[in-house]
Amino acid sequence: INNIKSPEVKPEEFKFLLNDFDEKELYLKAKKFRKNKVYDKSIEYYEYVLNSNGNSIYTREALFWYARTLEDSGKYLQALENFRLYLEKYRDTDVYITETEARIKKIILN
Q: How crowded is residue 5: how many other Cβ atoms within 10 Å of its Cβ?
């Protein structure tokens, strides 16, 4: 996913993270930060998953929750961009599609 801002991390640190943690572990860390409303860290870990070039269920999940976390942290334009990207990439899955469309409308109307 090329449109995702890379976290402020050096390439060698990113490789280290990916060597030590798989996509699932990075996704679960992001989810935990989100649950605790530590949005900056959550965003960072979702970005790690999205930049890992994986094509797993965690990549799909991470993109949706990345956009939600951006929205919850008040970064509406970034959230809108990523919700649209989610629809573009995953419309055929029917996962979160109705909610994504509703969130796009909400952002646009506000």
A: 13
Q: Tell me the C-alpha distance between 71 and 65, whole Å.
A: 10
Under DSSP, the state recorded for 8 is S
- What radius of gyration do the chain's Cα atoms show? 13
Q: Report d(CA 84, CA 67) in Å as an integer.
A: 9
pLDDT tens column, 35-54 = 999 999 999 999 999 998 77
What is the number of other CB atoms lying within 10 angstroms of the CB of residue 87?
A: 14
- In order, the DSSP letters of 33-70 are HHHTT-HHHHHHHHHHHHTTT--SHHHHHHHHHHHHHH
Amino acid at 73: S
How far apart, in Å, are the Cα atoms of 29 and each of 3, 49, 100, 110? 22, 10, 23, 31
